[in-house]
Each structure stands twice: as structure tokens, then as C-alpha cells.
Amino acid sequence: MERTGNELDLGIDGPGFLAVQTKGGTAYTRNGGLQISSQGQLVTASGDPVLGEGGPITIPRGASITISNDGTVSANGAIAGRLKIVEFSATADPQSMGASYYTVAQKDVVASPESKVQQGMLEGSNVNPVASVIELINAQRAAEGMRHAMTMIDSEIDKTAVQDLPRVS
């Protein structure tokens, strides 16, 4: 988790996903970079409403927002809703919708009580870009070495074919 200090950034510690209402139905995401829409709804960066247990969560304009570890959203100290945080069953087959959204059959969605929300944090990448570039360069070098070896073997086969096959008759 990376600390951002933004009260609308949420990191989810555990297997949970935020439920989001899209034009295509309910989707799930771990991208916790949230905003308040012009209608006062808690939304994703794409503008899709984040679902609470009772539907979209509305925040009064200019309110101070706190989000507890269990996902309870408070605006100026008054509870505005509780985030719908779910996880997928072991047999689920999540399908990517792009924009870090996933969809899954409703029967494979279960509540995720062990997931904890961390306000002011975002989930960081689990990829080290420098290490990835080094691995890519090493793979490229290995592939180039294999190509060179194959060229040499091919050249030896051609040489043998030209020199030795005519003598076989």
C-alpha cells in the first residue's frame, strides 16, 4: 500500500473488491482512487458509482469524509453508507471488462468480512519496473544467443549436405 493522503483514496487489504455500478451492470474493482461526482455520489475515476450495501453512496457537498476499516463511510460524522466489499468464490471465473473492472456470475460473489479498507492509501503495483526491464533484456539476449546457435547449426547442416551427400551415391 502506498500512502497518498487523499481521503478518497482507498486501499483494500485482503481479497476484497469494491462493487461498482456500470452501464453494463455490477462490476468489481480494486482500484480505490475515488471521487465525488457532481451529483454527490462516490464514484470511480471512470465516473461509475461505487455501491454501498444499500446502493450508491451519496456524500453532501463539501463534507469531510472518513472511511473506517470495515468500509463504513461517514460524512461530517454522519454515516452515509457502507461500502459493498466482496470476494469471488474459488470456482469463479472473473472476466476483465477493462479499466480495472471485472465481472463474475452473481452466484460466485460473497461478502468479504476479512478485507479491511485503508483510507488515504492506494494499492501499489506488485511489479518492479527496473527488475522487469532487466529481465526483458536478459530474455532478449538469451533469444539472440539461441538464434545465433540455430544459424550456426543450420550452416553446418547445409555445409554437410553440400559436401557429404554427393559422395553417398
TrEMBL record:
Residues 12-75 form the Flagellar hook protein FlgE/F/G-like D1 domain. One of its GO terms (biological process) is bacterial-type flagellum-dependent swarming motility. Residues 118-142 form the Flagellar basal-body/hook protein C-terminal domain. Its main location: other. It is found in: Bacterial flagellum basal body. Keywords: Bacterial flagellum, Cell projection, Cilium, Flagellum. One of its GO terms (cellular component) is bacterial-type flagellum basal body. Belongs to the flagella basal body rod proteins family. The basal body constitutes a major portion of the flagellar organelle and consists of five rings (E,L,P,S, and M) mounted on a central rod. The rod consists of about 26 subunits of FlgG in the distal portion, and FlgB, FlgC and FlgF are thought to build up the proximal portion of the rod with about 6 subunits each. This is Flagellar basal-body rod protein FlgF. It comes from Granulicella sibirica.
